[in-house]
Amino acid sequence: MKNKKVTIILIAGGTASGKTTVAHRLANEILKDKSVTHISMDNYYKDFSELTFGCLTFL
């Protein structure tokens, strides 16, 4: 089995600071010859409208 080099790039920042834009530009421009997996945290948490009232009491 051939060893493959893996590069992981993490992008952090405040709300609406451009993290997703930077991630997309990296994937499209800089890394276009590579296999890219983009894992977004935007869809990780449920929207408050999806929570039951009982869950909201803990917030």
UniProtKB/TrEMBL annotation:
Name of protein: UDP-N-acetylglucosamine kinase
Family the entry assigns: Belongs to the zeta toxin family.
Residue intervals of the Zeta toxin domain: 4-46
Enzyme Commission no: 2.7.1.176
A GO MF term: kinase activity
SUPFAM superfamilies for this protein: P-loop containing nucleoside triphosphate hydrolases
Keywords of this entry: ATP-binding, Kinase, Nucleotide-binding, Transferase
Organism: Mesoplasma corruscae
Catalytic activity: UDP-N-acetyl-alpha-D-glucosamine + ATP = UDP-N-acetyl-alpha-D-glucosamine 3'-phosphate + ADP + H(+)
Record-linked Pfam families: Zeta_toxin
Database matches in Gene3D superfamilies: P-loop containing nucleotide triphosphate hydrolases
